Amino acid sequence: MKIKCNFAKENLQHMEQKGKILIIDDNEDVLFALNLLLEPYVEKIKVTTQPSRIEHFMTTFHPDVVLLDMNFRRDAISGQEGFDCLEQIQHLDPQAVVIFMTAYSDTDKAVRAIKAGATDFISKPWEKEKLLATLSSAIQLSLSRKEVGRLQEQVSALKGDETIPELIGNSPAMSKVKETIYKLSDTDANILILGENGTGKDLVARLLKHFSPRSGDAFITIDLGSIPEQLFESELFGYEKGAFTDARKAKPGRMEVASGGTLFLDEIGNLPLAMQAKLLTAIEKRCITRLGAVSPIDINVRLICATNANLRELVEEGKFRQDLLYRINTIELHIPPLRERGEDILLLAEHFLNGYNRKYKKEIRGLTREAKAKLMRYSWPGNVRELQHTLERAVILSENNQLRPDDFFFPATDKSRKEDEDEELNLEKVERRTVERALRASGGNMSRAAELLGITRYTLYRKLEKLGL
């Protein structure tokens, strides 16, 4: 027991003063002694002699552990006032960790306290080592409860999001994608989504989850392209406290949290070979082992993976395991690039325009015919994501009631750029756009517009008449 208590004391000393403690006792000497004893080991301490202050401290201080005296002045031996305080604390925080203290320790009160919801029970005067051991366990319990609560809230939020993702497009290529998604609605098969960056692979993954037997369960994602290689294992499988230097508390991995639901591994082609082997084992055995743990944890996940890489080429190059590829691509779903989707470009542009009109409180009524033609000529190397950003920028900067060609700016390297430049060689069109921009920039002030154009007001009036403006 002495070894165990010393270990608990060392635990507290190495916790970087984690844990906030509220002490409630009618004896000020007891409060002073506990404050002095515990201060080196915990983050913050609050004390009070008044049970009437419980609500204030529970709602403003949010303690991790409450040390509660069982016997106050009203009733010196029954402990009833302590039980009343416990009931109040549990009402304010059902997850509260409460340790009872009393100078009249006996088995009956201890049993009653635990049944009432107390975490533990210590007697006064206390043994220092035992008190530290009890407090160490209580703090760890509180932190674990909060971590579990956080994960449950995350999963509940995901479960509660009943909004059906919208896959916009009527082109033959997108119609085929939609048809495949609906065909898969009764299956639990692993899916591999292939497509260029920005084509909407994550949106398709969410649709697959929505139209699946696991639609009401968790949907957990990992972007393997944004995680440092050394963190892959801990993110996927989790870790136990002490598994590595910064592992101050246990943490479940994404596969464990997703159990019962769907796990979406984006950019699966970035997974290192060593981790590919461990992922394959987890899929085949349907269990994982946290870093630093001995016992495996059973899991039940549906796997959806996505990549813009050619995995078969990576297999031939020895950079991706063929057996893992077989496991993750029971069904392959190809998402076409935007340049192959025809007038879906205009459908998406209108969709984004409506959304950004609401966001930025604009009233832009569609696109001109010339603007639509310009969007259709562009090759969209960044796909739907690039189109979305292009529309957002245009809505923010445009001062027109319709989006025009000069509201869209594309890289000079794109092949459609030369066509735009050829179109802009028409002097009258260039002149018209320049004059219109000057008028917009000047707010209709003719003198200011003429100044911006570097001409006189008289010349500006002649140009307006000539151009029919």
UniProtKB/TrEMBL annotation:
<dbReference type="GO" id="GO:0043565">
    <property type="term" value="F:sequence-specific DNA binding"/>
</dbReference>
<feature type="domain" description="Response regulatory">
    <location>
        <begin position="20"/>
        <end position="139"/>
    </location>
</feature>
<dbReference type="InterPro" id="IPR002197">
    <property type="entry name" value="HTH_Fis"/>
</dbReference>
<dbReference type="Pfam" id="PF00072">
    <property type="entry name" value="Response_reg"/>
</dbReference>
<dbReference type="InterPro" id="IPR003593">
    <property type="entry name" value="AAA+_ATPase"/>
</dbReference>
<dbReference type="InterPro" id="IPR011006">
    <property type="entry name" value="CheY-like_superfamily"/>
</dbReference>
<dbReference type="InterPro" id="IPR025944">
    <property type="entry name" value="Sigma_54_int_dom_CS"/>
</dbReference>
<dbReference type="InterPro" id="IPR025943">
    <property type="entry name" value="Sigma_54_int_dom_ATP-bd_2"/>
</dbReference>
<keyword id="KW-0805">Transcription regulation</keyword>
<protein>
    <submittedName>
        <fullName>Sigma-54 interaction domain protein</fullName>
    </submittedName>
</protein>
<dbReference type="Pfam" id="PF25601">
    <property type="entry name" value="AAA_lid_14"/>
</dbReference>
<keyword id="KW-0547">Nucleotide-binding</keyword>
<dbReference type="InterPro" id="IPR009057">
    <property type="entry name" value="Homeodomain-like_sf"/>
</dbReference>
<dbReference type="InterPro" id="IPR001789">
    <property type="entry name" value="Sig_transdc_resp-reg_receiver"/>
</dbReference>
<dbReference type="GO" id="GO:0000160">
    <property type="term" value="P:phosphorelay signal transduction system"/>
</dbReference>
<keyword id="KW-0067">ATP-binding</keyword>
<dbReference type="InterPro" id="IPR058031">
    <property type="entry name" value="AAA_lid_NorR"/>
</dbReference>
<dbReference type="GO" id="GO:0006355">
    <property type="term" value="P:regulation of DNA-templated transcription"/>
</dbReference>
<feature type="domain" description="Sigma-54 factor interaction">
    <location>
        <begin position="167"/>
        <end position="396"/>
    </location>
</feature>
<keyword id="KW-0597">Phosphoprotein</keyword>
<keyword id="KW-0804">Transcription</keyword>
<feature type="modified residue" description="4-aspartylphosphate">
    <location>
        <position position="69"/>
    </location>
</feature>
<dbReference type="InterPro" id="IPR002078">
    <property type="entry name" value="Sigma_54_int"/>
</dbReference>
<dbReference type="Pfam" id="PF02954">
    <property type="entry name" value="HTH_8"/>
</dbReference>
<keyword id="KW-0238">DNA-binding</keyword>
<dbReference type="GO" id="GO:0005524">
    <property type="term" value="F:ATP binding"/>
</dbReference>
<dbReference type="InterPro" id="IPR027417">
    <property type="entry name" value="P-loop_NTPase"/>
</dbReference>
<dbReference type="Pfam" id="PF00158">
    <property type="entry name" value="Sigma54_activat"/>
</dbReference>
